């Protein structure tokens, strides 16, 4: 089983008509912030699973925080009976992002200052934005590097094979290879996903 988690780059954002979230498409409003289902077959994770003749599960979401990535990955692992057949591929996201508990769920927060948050949290969000100083971002960078290293050990202890990479590794590699983003934005089209799956395939076979 190839399991993929991460942010918009892993979720195949904008591959289908510029949609970042499934709910951006009126046909999939009930899907919320999940990856657009028609984009998934064009993503590097799905392509890798196809090449390896393995089942596939997409858990990546646009605007995801690393906290959400770890939480949902753990949830998936807990529901997996035969963990020895699980291979996790995780694309870690920007260090500054956070996950805030709200009512019975969670919301994802970024430092862009334009997130749509519940009215009751607007003031808290504004104050949080002002605290995202270079020193604070450096602190978070160190925290997440340690936490990701710890999480890798947790998976290893459970005999779960995995590949970790950061968004910057992904975007830098594709840019260096000459791939262009969709409409000059942040996300790459299917041809770049194909290139990244081939890059990961080599790491998979040597994992």
Note down, in words, how this protein is organized.
Helix 2 crosses helix 7. The protein is an alpha/beta fold. It is globular, with a radius of gyration of 17 Å. The chain has a 4-stranded parallel beta sheet, with helices on both faces. The chain is built from 7 helices and 6 strands, in the order E-H-H-E-H-E-E-E-H-H-E-H-H. It is 41% helix and 14% strand.
How many DSSP-defined strands?
A: 6
Strands of the widest sheet, in order across it, are 2-1-3-6
**Helicity level:** 40-55%
- Going by helix content, strand content and strand pairing, the class is alpha/beta
Low-confidence stretches: none
Radius of gyration: 17 Å
Write the H/E string, N to C. Answer: EHHEHEEEHHEHH
| Oligomer class | single chain
Tally of alpha and pi helices: 7
The best one-word shape is globular
User: How would a textbook summarize the main sheet?
Assistant: 4 strands, parallel
Q: Please state the average pLDDT score.
A: 94
Report strand %. 5-15%
Rounded to the nearest angstrom, the distance between the terminal CA atoms is: 15 Å
């Amino acid at each position: 089983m190839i399991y993929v988690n991460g942010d918009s780059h892993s979720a195949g954002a904008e591959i289908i008509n510029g949609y970042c979230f499934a709910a951006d498409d009126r046909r999939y409003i009930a899907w919320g912030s999940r990856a657009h289902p028609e984009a998934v077959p064009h993503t590097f994770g799905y392509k890798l699973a196809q090449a390896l003749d393995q089942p596939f599960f997409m858990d990546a979401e646009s605007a995801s925080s690393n906290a959400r990535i770890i939480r949902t990955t753990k949830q998936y692992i807990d529901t997996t009976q035969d963990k020895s057949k699980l291979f996790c591929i995780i694309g870690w996201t920007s260090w500054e992002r956070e996950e805030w508990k709200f009512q019975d769920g969670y919301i994802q927060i970024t430092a862009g200052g334009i997130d749509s948050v519940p009215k009751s949290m607007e003031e808290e969000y504004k104050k949080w934005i002002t605290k995202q100083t270079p020193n604070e971002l450096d602190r978070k960078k160190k925290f997440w590097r340690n936490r990701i290293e710890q999480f890798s050990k947790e998976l290893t202890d459970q005999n779960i094979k995995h590949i970790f990479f950061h968004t910057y590794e992904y975007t830098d590699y594709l840019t260096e290879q000459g791939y262009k983003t969709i409409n000059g934005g942040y996300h790459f089209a299917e041809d770049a996903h194909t290139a990244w799956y081939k890059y990961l395939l080599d790491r998979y076979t040597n994992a």
